[in-house]
């Protein structure tokens, strides 16, 4: 189980998230939604210990998250990745195995096989020698998904994985998410899609600095909650995404 209790983060004294608490059980997928600047990416980075929190407790399997980073996979938001970095698809995915093989060792047969099946699973094995910057947006997302798979983690964070991808890539991703859930993994999914994606989540967190609402789709996606979270920006949401 992942437990987050009273998490606070400030950036130079300015509150980014405040008193965020929630729990997720094994085999569950949590959707995190909220407007731009709501603190969604900040929440994930603080859980992972990538940025300092000013208060709160985060535990995974009853122990501090920082001691279990090998069991945690993180696919960052597209805007936070340097796509010009000169590295091949194969090496990006192989990086997921560094913790198991060691920094200065050649990857062993088992790691090579795991990387190969992860790339095959997302349909990217044939492009393994390409530079990451020479792929389409959807292909890049699939490579990062393969890297998360190759890590064989138990807890997965995906920050807006569906941005700029086509239906086929989205279907591949959801198939994989379902498999991971069946295997008892925990998935935390940040998304701006208030439609189809949310119906696939077991639990939702609606965030705008603090938690506006959490629970099932019916409990969270109400006009009142969305108005509280998005305010006037609600007007810009796609009509089809709004609740009936
Ligand atoms: N490194 C940083 N230094 C200072 N302020 C930051 C930093 N990163 C984020 N912020 C601020 O913290 C707030 C939350 O940012 P965050 O990136 O977590 O939002 P988000 O919900 O992920 O937004 P988006 O939907 O646009 O990705 C914003 O006001 C942002 O400007
Ligand atoms: Mg973000």
Put the structure in a nutshell.
With 244 residues, the chain is an alpha/beta fold. It is built from 9 helices and 10 strands.
What descriptors fit this protein?
244 residues; alpha/beta; Rossmann fold; 6-stranded mixed sheet; 4-stranded antiparallel sheet; 9 helices; 10 strands; 32% helix; 25% strand; binds adenosine-5'-triphosphate; binds magnesium ion
Task: Describe the protein's architecture and organization.
The protein is an alpha/beta fold and 244 residues long. The chain has a domain at 2-81 and 153-241: P-loop containing nucleotide triphosphate hydrolases (Rossmann fold). The chain contains 9 helices and 10 strands. The protein has a 6-stranded mixed β-sheet, with helices on both faces. α4 runs antiparallel to α5 (137-150). The chain is globular. The structure holds adenosine-5'-triphosphate and magnesium ion. Magnesium ion binds next to α1.
Ligand inventory: adenosine-5'-triphosphate, magnesium ion
Order of helices and strands: EEEHEEEHHHHEHEHEEHH
In spatial order, strands of the major sheet run: 6-7-8-3-9-10
What separation lies between the terminal Cα atoms?
Answer: 33 Å
What is the percentage of strand-forming residues? 15-25%
Number of discrete helical segments? 9
Average pLDDT taken over every residue: 90
Helix content: 25-40%
CATH superfamily of the domain at 2-81 and 153-241: P-loop containing nucleotide triphosphate hydrolases
Structural class: alpha/beta
- So what's the overall shape? globular
Report the CATH architecture of the domain at 2-81 and 153-241.
Answer: 3-Layer(aba) Sandwich
- CATH class identity of the domain at 2-81 and 153-241: Alpha Beta
Q: Can you tell me the CATH topology of the domain at 2-81 and 153-241?
A: Rossmann fold
Radius of gyration: 18 Å
Count of individual beta strands: 10
The poorly predicted ranges are: none
- Let me know the largest β-sheet: 6 strands, mixed
């Amino acid at each position: 189980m992942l437990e987050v209790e009273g998490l606070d983060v400030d950036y130079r004294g300015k509150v980014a998230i405040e008193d965020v608490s929630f729990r997720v059980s094994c085999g569950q997928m949590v959707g995190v939604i909220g407007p731009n600047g709501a603190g969604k990416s900040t929440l994930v980075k603080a859980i992972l210990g990538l940025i300092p929190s000013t208060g709160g407790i985060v535990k995974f399997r009853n122990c501090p998250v920082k001691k279990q980073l090998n069991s945690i996979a993180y696919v960052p938001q597209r805007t936070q990745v340097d796509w010009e970095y000169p590295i091949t698809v194969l090496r990006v995915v192989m990086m997921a195995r560094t913790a198991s093989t060691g920094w200065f060792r050649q990857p062993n047969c088992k790691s090579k096989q795991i990387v190969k099946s992860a790339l095959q699973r997302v349909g990217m094995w044939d492009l393994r020698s390409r530079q990451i910057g020479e792929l389409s947006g959807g292909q890049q997302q699939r490579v990062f998904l393969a890297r998360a798979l190759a890590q064989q983690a138990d807890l997965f964070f995906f920050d807006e994985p569906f941005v700029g991808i086509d239906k086929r890539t989205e279907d591949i991703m959801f198939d994989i998410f379902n498999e991971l859930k069946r295997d008892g993994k925990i998935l935390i999914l940040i998304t701006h899609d208030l439609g189809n994606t949310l119906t696939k989540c077991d639990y939702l967190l609606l965030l705008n600095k603090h938690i506006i609402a959490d629970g099932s789709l019916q409990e969270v996606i109400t006009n009142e909650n969305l108005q509280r979270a998005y305010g006037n920006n609600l007007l810009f949401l796609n009509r089809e995404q709004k609740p009936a």
